[in-house]
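BUG: 3D viewer hangs when loading the predicted structure for this chain

Environment: internal workstation, default settings.
Expected: structure renders.
Actual: progress bar stalls at 90%.

Input used:
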Amino acid sequence: MAERNRLGEAAESSADAAVAELYAAHWAGLVRLAWLLLRDDQGAEEVVQDAFIAVHRRWGSLRSADRAAAYLRRSVVNGARSGLRHRGVEQRYVARQAGGGTASAQRIDRSTEANPEDRAIDVEATQSMVMALGRLPQRQREVLTMRYYLDLSEAEIADALGISAGSVKAHAHRGLASLRDRMEARS
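Structure tokens produced before the viewer hung:
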């Protein structure tokens, strides 16, 4: 019995160390990814925290420690999708309670205190690009964000989103064409 407890403690200790290394290497990038998908500081941090908790909890069942970063990215993307669905439900509920209008006409103000990241994004050119990116369909937005912000390969994006590399190429191509059209229309 004591031997089994020592083995369990050793496994937990290795998971703690490995997740601490992953945290140091990937925390900031994953929070930025989640923010670009959610546009909500607190929600982005919560999504990333949940992803790290899930990795720690499942550390023993991961096929390879090298796959942990991909697992984290996939968890963050899925968590952001869930957050967006929840936000839509909230907005529809608020619209119904207010007695009219559509949910999109009655947006919930989710602004938070400005931080250095927000101030950096505040540059007009970046702001218009982020707005145009936000108007893209979800899959195109996810692919372009992972490709150009996180600098991931097509294979890594495909793995994170659970789609084929060909689908990644198609979504990237369509998303870039749409962004190009929108940015040229602003000029």
